[in-house]
Amino acid sequence: CEIAPGAVHVPDWLDAREQRELLEACRAWARPPAGLRTVRTPGGGAMTARQVCLGWHWYPYGYARTVVDGDGAPVKPFPARLGELGRRAVADAFGDDPARGPAYDIALVNFYDADARMGMHRDSDEKSQAPVVSLSLGDTCVFRFGNPGTRARPYTDVELRSGDLFVFGGPSRLAYHGVPRVHTGTGPPELGLTGRLNITLRVSGR
Ligand code: MD3
Ligand code: FE
Question: Does a cis peptide bond (omega within 30 degrees of 0) precede residue 61?
Answer without folding.
Answer: yes
